[in-house]
Structures are given as C-alpha cells and as structure tokens.
Predict the structure.
Amino acid sequence: MGKNNSPFVSRRPFDSLRYKFSRITVSITLVVLFFAISISYLWGHRLLSSVILSNSQSITEILSFSLVQGLKEKCIDFQAYAKDVRILRAIQAANAFTQAMSISMREQYILDIDQQWISSSADSSLVQEYLLRDASEYLRYFTSKDDVLSEIFLTDQFGCLVATTDKTTDFYQADETWWKDSYNGGAGRVVIGDVEWNDASQEWVIPVSVPVRDKSNAVIGILKASIAVDRYFISLSQMRFGESGHVLILNDKGQVVFYEKSLSGQYQIPEGSEFFKSVSA
C-alpha cells in the first residue's frame, strides 16, 4: 500500500481540541450539578427538619396546655367525689375507730395491719373487707366509667386506708410525701404529683391528691386518684412526623413514660446517649 502524501494528517475525534474542551465543560457541569443537588438536598432536609421541629414545639405547647386544663378538670371531679355522703361516713367511722385508741395502741395497730396488708393477697379476707365497702364500690363506679383512671383510694386523717378500688401496695399512707403534702398539717391542699411508676398497677401514672373535708371545712381524710399515662395520652399514638417519626414522652430522668408501642415495665434512655443529651439540652 502506498504512503499517504496528503498534507492533512488524519486524527481520531477524541484527540481534537474541541473534544477535550467539551469533555472538560461536561465534567465541570456535572460537578456543579452534583454540588447543586447536594446543597438543595441538605437545605431541603434542614428546612424539613426545621418545619418538623417547629411543629413539634407547637404540638408540645398545645399538649402541655391541654394536660394542665385536663388535670384541673379532674381535680374538680375528685373534689366532688370527696363530698359524697358515702365517703364522709366511711372516713368519720374510721377516724372514730382510731381516735378511740391511745397513741401507743394506734401506732402498734398501724404497724401490725400495714405488715399484714402487705403480705396479704387481693382475695384475702382482709383486703376483700376493704374492697367490698360501700365507699369502695362508689369509687369503683368512677374508675369503670373513666378509662384514664387507674385507681382511687381513701385514707382517714391518720393515713390509714379506708376504701379503695384495688389492693394498694401499703395500708398506711401518712409516711408518703404526697400524703403529707396534701394533708398540709391539717390545712389541706390539692396536689398534682410528678409522673410516677405504680407498683400495684404496673404502669406510669399521674397522682392527684385532694383533701376530704367535713361540714366545718376541717380536713378529715385524703383521697388519691391515679391517672394512667398511657390511656391519658392515647391520642398521641396516632401522630406521625414524616415517614418514621413517632411520639414518646420522657420524664426528667430519661425514663419513657409514654410510647405508642408498649414497653413492658420501666424503660430508661441511657443518660450518656446522644438522644438523652439532645432532649435534655
């Protein structure tokens, strides 16, 4: 084959200056586009997170207001329960029984019956005596009609159990902080306690204590009601944040007091975890 004497040298397309320039231009365009998409995604993600956070804060404020109003209404209900004649008669009879004892006899009686109560089962004759009282039946009517009520019980002015909807952990209550706060040295006051774990019912509850007063307005006993947290906040289980966000409520110790997915017993977020740090900030 003869030698090519053409003054023009044949080149492959990718060796041309135009192709190299085009390739550089396309590469730069792709890099810019990549960064543009990344920035847009990050900005959009932050915007979405900001919107979710803003909505969460608004929901929290509404929830807090609703909780306070709801508890105020419950307090009014409990104070009305405490004025019923069956409650007053039961407490007056219990007070007359313990007042007839000397101080030393009363102290020994309380010690003995408290130990006996703790060791007794719910179907024992001692516990059944209190569960079947008229005042207990009256209180049980309200727990059967109100889904959020876990239990209600009544004590006399010495802190001894008078009536109850369920077996309580202890018989004697006057050594408990909530009882002392509500009795208030005989002046009486309504006390809404912090969310606490109820060993008897095995659930988180909001305790509410109200003084029981006679016609002269003297405090003759204390009524305590426990509001079940999981039932009180049941509507929150329907809430969603994005595709996978859920609602849970923690106390100041990082313990989960409400979560739409049932958690058996007490569950605590590790204090050193990033989640705990973020919600505690």
In short: Residues 13 and 19 are 7 Å apart (CA to CA). The first strand starts at residue 149 and ends at 156. Strands lie at 149-156, 161-164, 191-192, 196-198, 203-213, 219-228, 248-250, 255-259, 267-268.
